[in-house]
TrEMBL record:
Gene3D superfamilies: Ribonuclease Z/Hydroxyacylglutathione hydrolase-like. Pfam families: Anti-Pycsar_Apyc1 (PF23023), Lactamase_B_2 (PF12706). Its cofactor is Zn(2+). GO terms for cellular component: cytosol; nucleoplasm. Keywords: Endonuclease, Hydrolase, Metal-binding, Nuclease, tRNA processing, Zinc. This is ElaC ribonuclease Z 1. InterPro entries: Metallo-B-lactamas, RibonucZ/Hydroxyglut_hydro, RNase_Z/BN. PANTHER family: ZINC PHOSPHODIESTERASE ELAC PROTEIN 1 (PTHR46018). It comes from Podarcis muralis (Wall lizard). Transmembrane segments: none annotated. CDD domains: RNaseZ_ZiPD-like_MBL-fold. GO terms for biological process: rescue of stalled ribosome; tRNA 3'-terminal CCA addition.
Length: 369
């Protein structure tokens, strides 16, 4: 199964002609999941090879405008372009507490009605995810009855044992959220593919006298079978090692992580997308605004042994490589800063419309000794 990640917006604070506001798409088998939806995301979709109508799930890291202002417009345009819903599954939207109210109010005030079913699932942050002076009591949230949702969404709370939130758990994927520290509560998301069953080993099937037929399918699906001669065959007798699933981690704005959940979940990630709003020389300013520098991002990637680090969410002062004009700051310096921490391991700078393939993993055959 092909799986890839496309960056539609890699800029911080606001969209510009060279960098859109935050939006990242994870795609597999024709389905798209959108992570953040800054202003202008719908036009970024139109300029790309992706189709907004394929979005099945949306994940919002935090409620700053550069991550969410594009959402009502995008949903309304998808609605205009979609055929009337009959048996469509709802578009599932996940994000911090307050997101439902934001969407319901804006759709109500603009007299917009979406032609497809949708539902918002809200994550309840913990108080340590932002500075004390920024904490707001969202008193209006619970009393808000202006819901145009088809079905009421879930309220997701932190699982203290795992230090994470479970958002999706289906036959193919698990999606979890973990806590980040920012000016307002922010989250990171883990998308982990479930292990794929190993192939049947024809030689072993033959040796054990398993007759061809539906029995093969049952063994491949993990069922134990008893042959007519009374021999019990366990799936592990005749299948190769399961193929490990792929792991993509996308972090929202942050100056650091909260708790131990993030590092544990992101361990061994095939792709880790981390913000680097400013370069290392401006570390104090970055921290003050709740942001990271390449060093912070690379240290986290090192901690969780990520296979590939992608930096994104750059201040608009960093034009994409090759588009720098006089007086512009060279974004390549951010790459160098992160690579120094990672001992030379290559770091990728995200650019709008860049797509990264996440190849399927091969089983590593353990050496005999
Ligand atoms: Zn931002
Ligand atoms: Zn932010």
């Amino acid at each position: 199964m092909a799986m890839d990640v496309t960056f539609l917006g890699t800029g911080a604070a606001y969209p510009s002609p060279t960098r859109g506001a935050s939006a990242t798409v994870v795609r597999f088998e024709g389905e798209s999941w959108l992570f953040d939806c800054g202003e202008g995301t719908q036009t970024q979709f139109m300029k790309s090879h992706l189709k907004a109508g394929r979005i099945a799930k949306i994940f919002i890291t935090h409620l700053h405008g550069d991550h969410v202002f594009g959402l009502p417009g995008l949903l309304c345009t998808i609605s205009l372009q979609s055929s009337p819903a009959t048996n469509k599954l709802p578009v599932e939207i996940y994000g911090p507490l307050g997101l439902r109210s934001f969407l319901c109010r804006i759709l109500e005030l603009s007299h917009s009605q979406l032609a497809f079913p949708w539902v918002v699932h809200e994550l309840v942050p913990t108080p340590d995810q932002c500075p004390a002076e920024e904490r707001k009591e969202l008193s209006f949230v619970d009393g808000d009855k202006v819901s145009s949702e088809e079905a009421p969404g879930k309220t997701l709370r932190l699982d203290p044992l795992e230090d994470s939130y479970t958002l999706v758990d289906n036959s193919q994927f698990v999606v979890k959220a973990f806590r980040l520290f920012h000016r307002i509560p922010s989250f990171g998301f883990l998308v982990e593919e479930k292990p794929r069953p190993g192939k049947l080993n024809a030689q072993k099937l033959k040796e054990l006298g398993v007759p061809p037929g539906p029995i093969y399918g049952r063994l491949k699906d993990g069922a134990t079978v008893v042959l007519e001669n009374g021999t019990t065959i366990f799936p592990s007798d005749v299948t190769e090692e399961p193929l490990p699933g792929r792991k993509v981690c996308i972090l929202g704005d942050c100056s650091g992580i909260v708790g131990d959940g993030a590092a544990a979940l992101c361990y061994g990630a095939d792709l880790l997308v981390h913000e680097a709003t400013l370069d290392d020389a401006q570390a104090d300013k970055a921290k003050e605004h709740g942001h990271s520098t390449p060093q912070v991002a690379a240290e986290f990637a090192k901690l969780c042994k990520a296979k590939k680090l992608v930096l994104s969410h750059f201040s608009q002062r960093y034009k994409p490589a090759g588009q720098t004009g006089e007086g512009d700051v060279d974004v390549m310096e951010l790459k160098r800063q992160a690579e120094r921490v990672l001992g030379g391991q290559e770091v990728v700078l995200a650019e709008d419309f860049m797509t990264i393939d996440i190849p399927m993993k091969k089983v590593t055959i353990a050496s005999p000794n």
